Amino acid sequence: MGSSEVVNLSEITLAAAELLTNPKEPKPICVVRLTTSVWSDGNGVHIKKTLRYLRKQCRGYNILDEDCSNAGVNEAVKRITNLDECEDGVYKVVTCNEFAAWETPHIIEDYDYKLIPYEIPKH
After folding, report:
1. What is the pLDDT of residues 63-86, one digit of tens each?
2. Which residues are paired to 114 by β-bridges?
3. DSSP for 52-91?
4. Which of 112, 113, 118, 96 is nearest to 33 (CA)?
């Protein structure tokens, strides 16, 4: 033991106490409101689906927003597997069909999205 480093036990105890008292970071969640609009005009019949982020319900990293920014909105929306079957309402966006290569099983390389009905908690 060539090192004469002194460990301050009170600092270690304070760090351990802080870890115990601070709750874990909440899991990221993306919550959206799906609305469908249908109308007609002289040019034809139109159908529009809107996914609006419910900012007060979303926490942490927003994977859908990130993918829209990086891969493009068209590519991200194509990955929502059940968008056509969902009625208007509030949904949580979750990943599904996750793919990891056998060389790196702990790294997800590709995924799709699914909309899961979500009930906004009453405070």
Report:
1. 899 999 999 999 999 999 999 999
2. 94
3. EE-TTT-BS--HHHHHHHHT-HHHHHHTBTTGGGPPSEEE
4. 118
